[in-house]
Amino acid sequence: MNTNNTVFLYTDGSCSKNPGPGGWGYALFYNTSQKDDYGHALETTNNRMELQAVIEGLNALTRPMPVRVFTDSKYVMDGATQWMHGWKAKNWQKKGGLKNADLWQKLDKALAPHTVEWEWVKGHSGDTWNEHVDKLAVKGTQKAQAILAKQNGKSRAEAES
């Protein structure tokens, strides 16, 4: 997919009953290599999972790299490119409170060693790799739902309804 020294990172987050069980997924591409991963949270929001996907993808890199992040989340992209610098300068504070400050700080740390470009892609519009990471994020959400259902003695189908 990628023939230069830039890592391509596709990310997505998912949440059922926002807030509720959620998942994140990413696909990393470097030269001819691809690495996918996904995870879950039992109680979260879609925005938190979108942030977590980028954090996990960047943290999977073993050395500083040029990275191109593809996301369908304007919240994450605008936060990282426009708002985060100001939040950091104000010690991660903003009038009315900064939602997800813990993850914004983790994202700041994960971004630090890399040279990052951001590209927004429209979600559910047929972009092959955005659809791929969406499936990974949904898989994470389904895992969280299954864990909750088991804890509550229900089947996953009952938990999803």
* Main sheet attributes: strand count, strand direction, barrel closure: 5 strands, mixed
Tally of DSSP helical segments: 5
Q: What is the oligomer described by this structure? A: single chain
**Uncertain stretches of 5 or more adjacent residues:** none
CATH topology: the name is: Nucleotidyltransferase, domain 5
Tell me the domain tally: 1
Query: What is the overall pLDDT average?
Result: 93
Write down the CATH class.
Alpha Beta
Q: State the order of secondary-structure elements, H for helix, E for strand.
A: EEEHEHHEHH
At the fourth CATH level, what is the homologous superfamily?
Ribonuclease H-like superfamily/Ribonuclease H
The CATH architecture would be 2-Layer Sandwich
Q: Enumerate the strands of the largest sheet in spatial order, edge to edge or round the barrel.
A: 3-2-1-4-5
Backbone CA Rg: 16 Å
What is the distance, rounded to the nearest whole angstrom, between the alpha carbons of the first and last residues? Answer: 39 Å
Helix content: 40-55%
Q: Strand share of the residues?
A: 25-35%
Structural class: alpha/beta
- How many β-strand stretches? 5
How would the global form be characterised? globular
Notes on the structure:
The protein is built from five helices and five strands. By secondary structure, the protein is an alpha/beta fold. It has one domain: 2-Layer Sandwich (Nucleotidyltransferase, domain 5). A five-stranded mixed sheet has the order 3-2-1-4-5. Helix 1 runs parallel beside helix 3 and helix 2 packs across helix 3. The longest helix is centred in the last third of the chain and has 25 residues. The chain is globular, with a radius of gyration of 16 Å. The relative contact order is 0.22.
